[in-house]
Amino acid sequence: MTVARFAGCLSAAFCSLLPLASQAQGYAEGLGLSYEVLPLQLAGDAPRSFRADVYRANLILPVLASADSSRSMLVGLSLEHLRFSGERPGFPVASVTGLLPLVGYRYRVSPQLELTALALPALNSDLRHVRAADLTWGGVVRAGYRRNARRAYRLTLGYRQQFYGPQYVVLLGLDWQLGRRWRAFGDLPTTFTLSYAASPRVAVGFNLNGINTAYRLQASNRYFQYQQGHYGLFAETYLSSHWALRATAAYAVTRRLDVFEQNDQWPATIDYIGLGQEPTPVNPHINNGPAFKLALSYRVATP
Q: Contact, 148 vs 154, CB < 8 A?
């Protein structure tokens, strides 16, 4: 599930919290690469258009697996880089980078029940002067229950330090084979996909993708929050038995690309629902708008 934010009040923090591809959608993704372009516009009497280019890569591998594959360690790494270009008065961000190593443990208790625990340290910064304050810590635990061959459920609970305040993760997951061609899967409220297999190598469908993360801006003692709730249509094709290429066109129902003073934070956030007094951004408002993404992934089919 790659890599992966999941808003006015949805969050896809899990997209970036957990770049590991689950086996919920009929395949596991060990490697993912993507490029996304966000056409942006500053609101106001004289709107200014600019853009963000977003590059992502993630890798996860099981290691030290038991002989029966019921237990294994998980190690991985996720990278995200946002670069802004164009005229953007009042928006003081040129680029930010996130580096998220992952280490965890997976235990299949029975054919129906699987437990996973992950530690998720992160370095999110503009990389001007990297220091210990750029590091944040978090972790999640997940229980997956397969009711039958066509339906499975998941519950994920976690906590993460964020520069905008403490973030609590509560995700309800579903994988449902609706028929021979239709499948619905995701971890709500951060991700959801409805996929139609047009042929053995081609699929189309709808997806929701959310992100809620933040980066420290060293030069100004501020932080930059990146929050999105993208609803989109996708088409994908298998280039070979394992490599899949997906193109997505989406619209940001929720989009927050805002800079805040270091001590102006939410008291707490659940996924991407903020609790308490909302912090005040120092930059002009950025309008909602489209997003276009191209992703390449290496997949291994799972039962």
A: no
* DSSP β-bridge partners for residue 118: 104, 140
**Helix, strand, or coil here: 132?**
helix
- Is residue 206 within a helix (H) or strand (E), and if so which, with residue range? strand 202-217
Is 26's pLDDT higher than 70? no
Which range, of 79-83, 225-229, 299-303, averages the lowest pLDDT? 299-303
> ω before 247 within 30° of 0 (cis)?
no
Over residues 159-206, the pLDDT tens digits come to 999 999 999 999 999 999 998 899 999 999 999 999 999 998 999 999
Q: Compute the distance between CA of residue 102 and CA of residue 21 in angstroms, rounded to an integer.
A: 12
Q: What per-residue confidence (pLDDT) applies to 10?
A: 29
Three-class secondary structure of residue 277 per DSSP = coil
Residue 133 DSSP class: G
| Residue in the structure block whose two tokens are 């899949």 | 244
Cβ proximity of 126 and 216 under 8 Å: yes
* Separation between Cα atoms, residue 126 and residue 131, nearest integer Å: 11
Q: What distance in Å separates the CA atoms of residue 104 and residue 156, rounded to the nearest whole number?
A: 14
Task: Locate 84 and state its tokens.
Answer: 């802004």
pTM equals: 0.87
